[in-house]
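hey m, so remember when u said the tokens were messed up on ur end? i reran from scratch. heres the input so u can diff it against urs
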Amino acid sequence: MRILPALSLALVLPVSALANNHVTSSLAGNLVSADGSQIGSVAVIETASGVIRVAVQGVDVTPGAHGVHLHETGVCEGDFSSAGGHIAGDANHGLVEGGPHPGDLPNALVGEDGELSMEAFANANLTMDMLRDDDLSALIVHSGPDDYISQPSGDSGSRIACAVLDAVPAAAEN
């Protein structure tokens, strides 16, 4: 397995660069595989416009499309079912009538090099308060692509990577 030493800082640095002008708050987490190895990082950034940007970087991920979702509980243990379901609100999953969930994100495409690099704007129904509740939240990468239709979670397969989202230390934001 290949580890990028600066990977955990790679997403904190853009937060620093934007902090004074565009970022109102942020969360970050270390992306871990099922064996507990750190394979990447996640940054969730609320911009001054209220739009939430999600950036994910990872290595040693199986090539292909992978469903990515924000889950309701900030616990990454075992098979990652500890992260609970998607942050759903009262919405249906995917691009169907009554959808999407606030925690639905686009599929991540991983190349033959196994590097996952994704940046997306979250659904307008997602708020930082949903991510920062008492039990925090997690970002999950699934083994297969989200079909954006199947209920309740897009039939995207097992959970292969997880990141607990927590506050970025103040020193990193300034």
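this time it looks ok to me. The helical segments are 7-10, 12-18, 128-131, 170-173. if urs says something different then somethings off w ur setup not the seq
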